[in-house]
Amino acid sequence: MVELPSRDLEFRGINRTHLGMYFEELGGIQITDSFPYIYKAESWSGRIVSEEEIAFTKIFRVNAVQIRFEAEDENLLEELIKNYRYKTTRIGG
Predict the structure, then answer these.
(1) Which residues, listed in sequence order, are joined to residue 65 by a DSSP beta bridge?
(2) C-beta of residue 70 within 8 angstroms of C-beta of residue 6
(3) pTM score > 0.90 for this model?
(4) How far apart are alpha carbons 35 and 15 in whole angstroms?
(5) In degrees to the nearest 10, what's the CA dihedral of 91, 17, 68, 87?
(6) 3-state secondary structure 1-28
(7) CB distance 61 to 12 below 8 Å
(8) How much is the average pLDDT of 65-78?
(9) Residue 91, pLDDT above cutoff 80
(10) Residue-by-residue DSSP string for 30-89
(11) With 70 as the cut, is the pLDDT of residue 77 above it?
(12) How many other CB atoms are found less than 10 A from the CB of residue 45?
């Protein structure tokens, strides 16, 4: 089995369900219903590997979600991550 190019990233403060929806918006189909949540498309896949809560203080807590991106080649991987990060961009107001 050939190992595909992959990259692991952490996203904080974004709901895990929303992170899954972003894979679907990019053309992925959800394959599993529990960890690791797997989303597959024709030339890439994404996995929501884990989620934990991080406490910065006794009151301030955020979730941290580990995601693995895989694609058929490095260029597709970079494009997938770029498009996914665009969806996770939050503009303050």
Answers:
(1) 11, 51
(2) yes
(3) yes
(4) 15
(5) -30
(6) CCCCCEEEEEEECCCHHHHHHHHHHCCC
(7) no
(8) 98
(9) no
(10) E--SSSSEEEE-SSEEEEEEEEEEEESSSS-EEEEEEEEEEESSHHHHHHHHHHHHHHH-
(11) yes
(12) 20
Pairing relationship of beta strands 61-71 and 37-40 according to DSSP bridges:
unpaired
Tokens at residue 55, please? 């406490």
Nearest to 51 by CA among 30, 29, 33, 36: 36
- Would you say the C-alpha torsion 8, 13, 14, 15 has a positive or negative sign? positive
14-45 pLDDT per residue, tens: 999 999 999 999 999 999 999 999 999 999 99
- Which residue type occupies 28? G
Cα(54)–Cα(66) distance, integer angstroms: 13
Answer whether 74's CB lies under 8 Å from 44's CB.
Answer: no
Domain locations along the chain: 9-52
